[in-house]
């Protein structure tokens, strides 16, 4: 959730800023079920206290973030909530976007890896919890992204295509030991710049997960806790590479443990008696791949690591952009300090699996400061813009149907299967995609006008029909 830390503003200091901040505060407070906010307001009035306001920095960050959130639904020219005068003061301008809480959920899982909900059901639940931006970050697969996008378009949620990559960190000294490290990758609306390379990389990891699960079952059998591979495979589902959670669920079903927590705490924890590794790549290799394919690399749950400082330092050298610092129980000061030391973004998410019970954080429960989200987008958007340009450039150089499909992989526009034609030219297809993904300024800075000219000169390449 994007939260807005606040400060007290005294009347008369700056009338123009004050008027805006009062307006913004009123808009931010408009939530039909916000009884807590109303009660808090009443208490403040009884005490005679002053209302708290957003700082100008937070207001500007909110404006920038909200413009990106609503980019594909509202023209950028009509999407400004505030503007800056020459004297750097804030002034109100007309807006078509109501100021509301912008809940970002940057870490979630579906049945495509080890979650309990389908991608579409996950999106629907996110919508129920007020999430505006959701990143589906299944383990070692992006198979659920298309379904999540389809559901998100129905309910008005923005999706950040993501993946959580399983890796191994190997110390450079003999005294240290290997440990598993998970790296989150966040991609543009167009997906990875080289989807095939990422897909093959993740495919190798998934193959190793099958071997890993079988090794865990073998160890459990030796511990007199018999499990059948067929049961684990059935729990995982068709085409899903089994993980520890699937083995743990099989253990619960077999009556070997009372619950999932017990399965992990007794047998499946890192280095536990039934723990096993697969064919996970080196953590630095994964970070470099994410960077090379137009993604933002973020270290997941660093508090679970045995040697976080050494890992963060090495991964920063490989190109790491950020680390998870915020959880549903607040910001972890030690990792916030590490992020500042190594100049890394401060992010976080619930790591939601829909397991149920009190041990799991609710979807959208992590309160991310709006300034932190703004910093994330300031780093991510140029990277994503470059990735989109590389993808479009590939089509310009080689205007095949497969390269066009790569551009449209996650777009609202799809290649027709029934011959219906609503857009008659591939240039129109690409223009429509760019308008969904990029601001006018980003398109100009990315030199997309030149690309459009090249496309028009060559007649748009293959004559593929399309529908919206």
UniProtKB/TrEMBL annotation:
Record CDD domains: PHP_HisPPase_AMP (cd07438)
Segments for region (Disordered): 28-52
Lineage, broadest ranks: Eukaryota, Viridiplantae, Streptophyta, Embryophyta, Tracheophyta
Annotated ranges, domain Polymerase/histidinol phosphatase N-terminal: 104-169
Protein name: Polymerase/histidinol phosphatase N-terminal domain-containing protein
Gene3D superfamilies in the record: 1.10.150.650, Metal-dependent hydrolases
GO molecular function: 5'-3' DNA exonuclease activity; 5'-3' RNA exonuclease activity
Coiled-coil region: none
Composition bias type Basic residues, residue spans: 37-52
